[in-house]
Give the backbone structure.
Amino acid sequence: MREVRGMSVLITGGGSGIGEGTARHFAARGAKVTISGRRREKLAEVAQSIGPACRAVVGDVTVHADREAMLAAAVEHGGKLDVLVNSAGNMYRQAIADYTEAFLKDAFNTNVISGMMLSSLAVPHLEKTQGAILFLGSIHNRRAYPGASPYATTKAAVEGLTRVMAAELGRRQIRVACVLPGAVPTEINLRAGLFTAEQSAARYAAIANDHALGRTGTDTEIAEAIEYLARAEWVTGVALEVDGGLGLGVSSF
Ligand SMILES: NC(=O)c1ccc[n+]([C@@H]2O[C@H](COP(=O)([O-])OP(=O)(O)OC[C@H]3O[C@@H](n4cnc5c(N)ncnc54)[C@H](OP(=O)(O)O)[C@@H]3O)[C@@H](O)[C@H]2O)c1
């Protein structure tokens, strides 16, 4: 297993939720972390509370120049790049009867294409360190939630591209994997304008019961899985379910 100490890790979407938890987790174990996102103040707040191990770079993952700037900042901050964590993403819900092309394109652009393009840019750096590209998939690929087809299909794409990237980059000693989290209370649904804070809390409370373990997860529990995938030198191409048993489809029948 690789040591986390001394790693240089770029985490998109590092200003909140799972990305923020991952940044805190790696920094606490001696990594240099670079976090990115669009909200300057949010990022600055997180970076300041983590301390000098963390650098924040404001940018939009859908913009090519911003992706280049994120990568350059991570390489400068950490002196190299060992791990790219593609955590930036949005929730996209739309009923099938209401599909609009612009909405679906935005979903795929943000949740799939941006991570693919950033990964492409990162390859020369990761080749030097025999590093890893990690994605956030979702248990939406194991459970079908009506209304969530745009989001679910982006996460299915992430799982598919993980396998092909792993196959293509393996001989260059770059590993690729994704984590499929169950429900982890974050601001993702609030940012999408889907629910109020109260509604979001109520929904997470309700879905807790669908997990075999009877509760939702934490960003730290996802960060622990990301740490494992970043360190495990003979693991590539996997989709690791870290979901408290949500994907089992437990039924009381
Ligand atoms: N929470 C869950 O239950 C769950 C379950 C399965 C998978 N996931 C996945 O885990 C990842 C993290 O989600 P989360 O739950 O931690 O939600 P979150 O707290 O909302 O984090 C997502 C982050 O992505 C950033 N982001 C979104 N669009 C961006 C863009 N165009 N450019 C740059 N940054 C962008 C957001 O920051 P800005 O708005 O400041 O840019 C935000 O900080 C996502 O890929 C999500 O699909 C979450």
